[in-house]
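pasting input
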Amino acid sequence: MASLHGSTLEAIKHNHAQLLVQWVAALEANGATRNIKEQTLSQETRDFLQLLIDVLQADSGNDIVSSDWDEARRFLERLSASRAQLGHDSHQAAYFIFALKRPLFSLLQTHFSDDPARLAEQLWLISELLDTLGMHTIRTFQKTREAVIKRQQEELLELSTPVVKLWDGVLALPLIGTLDSQRSQTVMESLLQRIVDTGSEIAIIDITGVPTVDTLVAQHLLKTVTAIRLMGADCIISGVRPQIAQTIVHLGLDLGTLTTKANLADALKLALKRLGVNLGEQV
Amino acid sequence: MSGEHSGSLPVRIEQDVVLARQLARKLASDCGMRLVDLTKLVTAVSELARNTVVYGGGGDMDWQVLEEAGRTGVRLLFRDEGPGIADLKLALTDGWTSGNGLGLGLTGARRLVDEFELDTVPGEGTRVTITRWI
């Protein structure tokens, strides 16, 4: 691969200060500097330009995956992580690199004004290099974001399955939100495990916090109840609101095999009755 | 009601089903739909959007808020370019499923809305339009 011409590098080094000023100006004009201190920005631009010059000087070629580009890559990774924390989006993060294009291009234009062939070649090389670096920034940015989302999803999975003991032998599982297959799997596992651990006879699944009960949710519920019964315990579904009840009827779901109650209190009352607990008329 | 009266939402993966439900819920409540009708519509959307993802290999949901002859409604079109439905009569039979569901999604969705229209060409895709009036 053709490398940058020596005089290109000289020109960049020579006009170092001017490049930085134009670069920062371009960043500001595009709103890519939101919430970033002026000082931090000038430090970042200075550091990166220096890194760039160092690597180019070592004549490492345009392959940014090679070890010569380690420093520059790591710099961009740190940069995109800090941008993600500031609430910037991926194109704002990548613009850090792309904003350097115009200043560099106009510099080269003046520098090679009498050699159009060389100008074209050098512009192409610089452009390709900056594009790769920009893409790298976007890729890291997305990876950071994805890591955050993944962590949140896992936290949600953990959070959303609290099995609580209501009485000796009575467990309750308040379900909240969407019951996609992955979550319902976790829910079922933790409920079954708790039934074994506590030796409970009755489990109450409360669906007050589930906004939509469609066929998939119903299927998950039916499976869970079947599994609970296979373990010798019984299950009551509570929190069946009027609109949910009507929807279930229209869907044609047959939940007749399940014991259902409108609210958790009724379900608990039924559970206690089955266990033979006598609360007396007035407590 | 807010400015927009129609639009489109991609329905490609399982998470999009959640977004489709949320959008339908918002459209219906913005129109002032009663809770029971809203729940029915959202449940139908859940079934059809999931069908789009699971059986249609992903597609889109076009939505439209209708106002005609003094009545308001929400119309949703689920379209995919999947394998289509080979035997429509069978697909609209309660309890029949080509996958491992309960076989009530399509028929149930039909019962949950006021208007239900299904176009399918085997090998080309499926379009399901549902409308719920207030």
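fyi The interface with chain B takes residues 178, 180-181, 211-216, 218-219, 242-244, 246-247, 250-253 of chain A (CB under 8 Å).
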